[in-house]
Specification:
The protein is mainly alpha-helical. Helix content is 51%, strand content 6%. The strands form two sheets. A three-stranded antiparallel β-sheet has the order 1-2-5, with no helix packed on it.
Length: 357
């Protein structure tokens, strides 16, 4: 597609359906399509691609930050709300969404630069304000113990044990196959290389993990091995009870008839379990954050946590849990302050030599 002859709208449509569709997962492609339809085409679509400037992109992004999206997309006229009745709700895009829109535009233009149709990527020179990191609410050690105690009688006890003790993502847990597990008590492991997701065309589908870093082999604690063995015995009983109605998928965590567990249904079960345990409401993904936070508080090295969680770069781990590290630094400084302000048992004893690494 010649950049000089096309509009931004035409190019984005070409890139979405001719390029991106072959490079990203279906759910990512769906998010790209929504972003282009709702924001990029209405805001920049009429401009000639070859004449698009950094100022155009900056003005467009500033508009996303400051303009009510109900009014911009005409939702209010259909629902007879907001601007249609002169009561604007002032619903603006979050900084995270604006950053995502910007990243999609950058990716699309970068392809045209690589194909030598554009001399430069004008969106790359625009600096957007970094969105605030998402807040999460990990369990304290006491809450984690209470959660596991309540989950001990649940049909999916082994799944909750794995989630909290290893930090596996929801899709990784639901995509585990029995062949991925080694349940030897002396050295049990889990190979993580698949994820269960719901896609628009395929329904519940087991896919490869999103990145190479997500593919990993992790050590299983004894508690997980024991709960998995108990779960395996229960699944065998369910298979016998289901008879010819059993769907053989090889998955570790299934419905009572062997079918894959829907991630949305797991979320509902998880919330009911929290209420039964008398615990505050958190997201299922916060179990993963709980794992990392509790490990950090126990002094586990950041590199080990990065490998366990399957982060691509240690900077991701360090960034997500920066507040935890800051709190631990403060605790360490306070402990040093107490030591320096206290009295030695023997005032004449020479200071102990220490190696600082």
């Amino acid at each position: 597609m010649a950049a000089a002859d096309s509009t931004v709208s035409a190019y984005l449509t070409y890139w979405l359906n001719g390029v991106a569709v072959h490079q990203v997962r279906e759910n990512t492609h769906t998010r790209y399509a929504s972003c282009i339809r709702l924001h990029l085409i209405p805001g920049l679509g009429a401009k000639k691609l070859a004449r698009l400037t950094a100022r155009d992109v900056r003005t467009f992004l500033d508009g996303l930050r400051t303009t009510c999206q109900c009014c911009t997309q005409g939702r209010d006229t259909v629902r007879r709300q907001c601007c249609a009745i002169d009561q604007c709700c002032d619903k603006r895009l979050s900084p995270l969404t604006v950053t995502y829109v910007h990243s999609v535009l950058k990716s699309a233009l970068e392809h045209d630069v690589r194909e030598d149709d554009l001399p430069r990527n004008v969106a790359r020179n625009i600096k957007t304000r970094a969105p605030r990191p998402r807040r999460f609410k990990p369990f304290t050690a006491s809450e984690a113990r209470q959660f596991l105690h309540t989950a001990s009688g649940d049909r999916l006890h082994a799944l909750y044990e794995l989630a909290l003790r290893t930090g596996l993502r929801k899709g990784e847990l639901l995509g585990l196959h029995w062949e991925d597990l080694d349940l030897d008590l002396d050295g049990g492991t889990a190979s993580v290389h698949r994820s269960l997701q719901r896609t628009r065309t395929g329904g519940l589908t087991v896919l490869h993990t999103k990145t190479c870093a997500s593919e990993r082999r992790i050590a299983l604690p004894a508690e997980c091995i024991n709960s998995l063995k108990t779960h395996q015995e229960r699944q065998l009983e369910e298979r016998r009870a289901a008879g010819t109605g059993w769907a053989e998928t090889g998955l570790v965590f299934t419905t009572p008839t062997g079918n894959p567990l829907d991630p949305t249904n797991l979320t509902r079960r998880f919330r009911r379990l929290l209420r039964r345990a008398g615990l505050r409401t958190i997201r299922f993904h916060d179990l993963r954050h709980s794992t990392a936070t509790l490990l950090l508080e126990q002094g586990v090295d950041l590199v080990v946590i990065k490998e366990l969680l399957g982060h691509a770069h240690i900077g991701v781990t360090a960034g997500v849990y920066a507040h935890v590290r800051l709190r631990l630094q403060r605790d360490a400084i306070d402990a040093l302050g107490h030591a320096l302000g206290g009295q030695d048992d023997d005032p004449d004893a020479p200071p102990a030599a220490a190696v600082v690494r």
